[in-house]
Each structure stands twice: as C-alpha cells, then as structure tokens.
Design a protein that fits this description.
There is one protein chain. This protein is mainly alpha-helical. It has 20 helices and no strands. It is elongated and about 90 Å long. The two termini are about 20 Å apart.
C-alpha cells in the first residue's frame, strides 16, 4: 500500500483504488472554505456589539477574506501544478487553521480583519488544489460524478455554517465560530497524507511569474473596487482601484498573449463553451451570495430567529442541492450541459422572483419554496459548468483550471454581495424614510436607523428602553402630576418604539423584495446569454484530444 500511496496519481496504470476516500478529504477541505463565510453571517451581530465595529469595519471583516482569496488563486494554482498539488492542499490547510486560531484570539477589528486575510490566503491554496487533485485522481468517466459531489458539498456548507455557528453562539462568544474550521482542517490534513495521492504536472516548465503578478494586481484591484465603490462611495480609493484593475487586466491579457508558456491561455475564452461556463458560475454565485446575504438578515432581524434557528431554517437549501446534484448526474449525459445549466439558471431566477413577493406580513413559510428552488438550481447547474471548465485544461494546468473556476465563483459572489447588498441598503433607507415621514421621532435616531436593519431595530429598542425607564420612574414617584407626565412621555415613546420597529421591518421586507426582483432580472438576462454561448451537446471529438494529451504527458513521466 505504501508503494501505491507514494506513486503520483498521474503515473498509475489503473485508477487510484482509494479515490472516493480521497474525494472525502477534498470535500472536507472545501467545506471549511465555504463555512468560513456563511458562519460569519450569524456571528456578525455579536461581533459588532462586542468589538464596537462600524459598518466599514464589518464590511472589511467579511471581505478581508475575499481579496487575497480571489487574487492569489491563479498564481498559487500554477505553483501547485509545478511542485505539488497535495503539498499546496496541506500548506493551505495549515495556513487556514492558523488564521482561524488567530481569529479566535483576536480582540479588535484590525486583528479580526488580519486573521480573515490569512484565512483567505490559505483558501487560495486549498480551493484550486481540491479541483486539480480531483481531476488528476479520477478517470474521465467518473470525474463528472466526483465534481457533482464536490459541488453538493458547497451547498451543504452554505447551510452548515450558520447551523454550527448558531449552536456555538448558544453558549459561547462570537470568537468560537472561528474554531469551527480547526478540527475539520486537522482531519483533512491527516486524510491528505493517508488518502490523497501526490500529484504534480508532468511538464515542469518555468512558471509565468510575470503573468502571475499581473493577475494578483488586477484581480485584487477589481475585488477591492467591487467592495469599496458600492458600500463606501466612488471616491479616490474606488476610482483608483478601478483604473488599476482595468490597466492590470489589459496588461495581463497582452502579456499572456505574447508569453510562450502563459499562466493562463486567455485564448480559451474564445471557446463559447468555456466562456459560457465561467459566466454561468459567476452569475449564479452573484445571485446565491447576494440572496444569502440578505436572507440571513431577514430571518434574524425581521422574523426574530436566533443564530441556531436561522441555521436550521437554511437546511432546505442544503437538502435541495443534493437532490439537484443527483438530477444533473442523470440528465446532463442525456440532454447535454446546455439544458441542465440553463434550467438551473432559470430556476435561480425563479427563486429570486419568488422572493420579490416578500412583505411585512411574510413568515418563514414564504421562504421555504425559494430556498428549495434555489438549492435545486445550484445542484443542477454548477457541476456541469465546473466539469466543462476543468475539462478544457490539460493535466499540466489542472491547478490553473481549478483556479479559473474558483475565481469566477469568487468574483461572482463578491459582485453579488456588493451589487445586491448596495441595492438592498439604498432601498431599505428609502423605504424607511418614507415610512417615518411625519413622525415625531428625533432626526438623529431616524438617520441612525437608516444605516442598516440592525441599526434600525437597535434604535427602536433604545426608544423602548427609555419608555420603560420613564414608566418605572412614574411608578415610584410620589408626585401625582409628575407621575402623570412621566406616564404620558412613556406612552409616547413606547408608541414611537413600536412605530420604528414596524417601519424597520416593513422597510427591510420591501427592500428584500425590490432587490430580489432586480437580481432575478440580472440572472434572467444572464441566462439568455449563457444559453446562446453553451454548446447543445457534449462534443466528444473535442474531449478526446484533451484526454489523449493527458495520457501522453503521463506516459512521459513513467
């Protein structure tokens, strides 16, 4: 067994016998990457209160993970291809676990953001390594099934993060949510050495570090612009980032077109299937991350569920992802990826359209159907796209292929939170302003309440607390006239607190509906573009040369 384990996957004459156990390790590694973000959504309120985070601080706590994660994937994927994909996975798990411990010990906004950045760097090693190891370990006939399970794991993590974090928050502080990742990372680390075969590219040519550096610059600048502009305004920072991103992208494309061994052959994007698959991944996660961002807020703030209850109520989405994944495994080989991907994207747009019916009277039952439809759509659409993207790369570039898929995913998710999150904030502020027009509430309180739904309910609670204090004073004063004045003030403030709470809930519900409608339109238009780009049937003639090239490269290493 030791001889088999030390033999690289690419040099094995037969498929690796323990490949399904190896897939479990890769899925565990993927699980913590996705959970790191979804768990934070339920821990954010407690973290904000404990550390006194501003809205800008909280935004960068969330996105401090995203910038290094998205920016470093292409370069780190190429380095993993050359030296060791399993080594990249192992090192990434160590860095990720270290960042998680750092986050647990953090006691300020700065240190939490730094910890999240370290975790993002670890995720940038792990994510492309999981896909490249999967593609190198599984024969082509089984790869689609393996990628389907990999995709279903991402859907599970979307719901598992809030659920596990919510359970921890019942008895522990927000910092405990960082420790969710550590035991899973340790388990995956041990499994990587025991179950995952070593793997690296047969062609050990020099890495295009120039292209790698340019990719880091333009992707980091683009993600920074996506975060900074919609949330904090299009000032000097956002405009500068936009210029750097544009210039960096142009320089990257020109460099790669002229380089004899480019980090990423940008000519691949001229292939309609490859371009359509990447666009579908980006658009889908724009919708998924954006919707998840405001759904968790609605469940917690408007419907009043605690962190654990919020996690439990996201489970229908996770279950539906597995059903959708099973369906796509049956349907894609028969009807082609164009139809399953298009059907999945139509389903995603439908889920958002269903959320457009949300109003102040909506209960959790009104969210079940959109969650189920969205989960089915994720399972149906994403694994065929990932399979198509990975299939476009030869064995020597599997890490880069995984990085391209994951960069599309992360850019789409960042855009979703930025665009839909910005639309949500603007719509909420406008609706709340309309709802409180003519009220006798202090202007400063109204302005604070417009910042976010959490701030709105905090203002309402503060007014209510003041009303209760006045009522208690009235009950203990010996002066009847003063007691009457205090009771009158308490009643007025109590009515104002109820008015504010009702207005906040109604405004946020209307904002969710408005944002979901726009999201449905964006995804609907994108679905038409993707449907035009994707081929109608898998082209076997195009797959054979790719497989043949892998066999030739593997043969050269024997």
């Amino acid at each position: 067994m030791r001889l088999v384990m030390n033999q690289p996957a690419e040099r094995m004459d037969r498929p690796y016998a323990r490949r399904w156990w190896a897939l479990l390790v890769l899925c565990l590694s993927l699980l913590i990457i996705v959970m790191a973000n979804t768990a934070l959504t339920v821990a954010a309120p407690a973290m904000t209160e404990d550390l006194g985070l501003t809205s800008a601080d909280l935004q960068w706590v969330i996105d401090g993970y995203t910038v290094p994660y998205a920016a470093l994937m292409l370069l780190l994927g190429a380095i993993g291809d050359k030296y060791s994909r399993r080594g990249a996975l192992v090192l990434g798990l160590v860095v990720f676990a270290g960042g998680s411990v750092f986050g647990y010990l953090a006691d300020s906004a700065t240190t939490v953001i730094a910890a999240r950045a370290v975790m993002g760097a670890g995720a940038a090693m792990i994510m492309p390594a999981t896909l490249s190891l999967l593609a190198a370990t599984f024969p082509r006939a089984e790869r689609a099934k393996a990628i389907t399970l990999w995709t279903a794991t991402a859907g599970l993590a979307i719901a598992a993060g809030p659920l596990v974090a919510g359970a921890l928050l019942e008895d522990h502080g927000w910092s405990s949510t960082f420790l969710i990742n550590v035991p899973v990372a340790v388990l995956a680390l041990l499994g990587a050495f025991v179950l995952v075969p070593p793997s690296k590219a047969a062609d050990r040519g020099r890495i295009d570090y120039g292209g790698g550096l340019l990719s880091v610059v333009w992707i980091a600048a683009l993600v920074y612009m996506i975060i900074e502009g919609p949330h904090f305004g299009w000032g000097v920072k956002a405009v500068t980032a936009a210029v750097v991103a544009g210039a960096g992208l142009v320089a990257f494309v020109l460099w790669e077109l002229r380089h004899p061994r480019p980090l990423l052959d940008v000519r691949r994007f001229a292939d309609r299937g490859f371009a359509g698959s990447n666009l579908a991944v980006a658009l889908f996660f724009l919708a998924v991350f954006g919707a998840f961002y405001y759904l968790t807020q609605h469940l917690q703030f408007v419907l009043g569920y605690d962190a654990l209850d919020t996690g439990l109520r996201m489970l229908p989405l996770a279950g539906a992802v597995f059903v959708g994944a099973a369906l796509t495994g049956l349907l894609t080989p028969r009807v082609g990826m164009k139809w399953t991907v298009t059907a999945g994207m139509v389903g995603g747009a439908t889920a958002l359209a269903l959320l457009a019916r949300v109003d102040a009277t909506s209960s959790y039952g009104d969210f079940v159907a959109p969650l189920v439809v969205l989960g089915l759509s994720i399972g149906l659409a994403l694994s065929p796209c990932t399979d198509a993207i990975m299939g476009a790369f030869p064995e020597s570039k599997l890490g880069v292929g995984g990085a391209v898929n994951d960069t599309s995913l992360e850019l789409g998710g960042s855009l979703g939170i930025a665009i839909l999150g910005s639309l949500l904030a603007t719509s909420y502020s406008g609706h709340l302003s309309d709802a409180t027009t003519g009220s006798k509430l202090p202007a400063s309180s109204l302005s604070t309440a417009q910042d976010s739904v959490g701030a709105g309910y905090a203002v309402a609670q503060g007014i209510g607390d003041k009303a209760r204090q006045l009522a208690e004073q009235a009950a203990h004063t010996g002066d009847p006239q003063q007691a009457e004045r205090l009771r009158t003030q308490a009643e007025q403030l109590g009515g104002g607190a109820r008015q504010m709470a009702d207005a906040v809930g109604s405004a946020f519900s209307d904002a969710v509906a408005h944002t979901s409608l726009i999201g449905a339109v964006i995804l609907g238009v994108g679905t038409l573009v993707v449907a035009l780009l994707l081929p109608g049937r898998p082209k076997a003639a195009e797959e054979e040369p790719v497989e043949e090239s892998r066999e030739l490269e593997s043969a050269g290493t024997r």
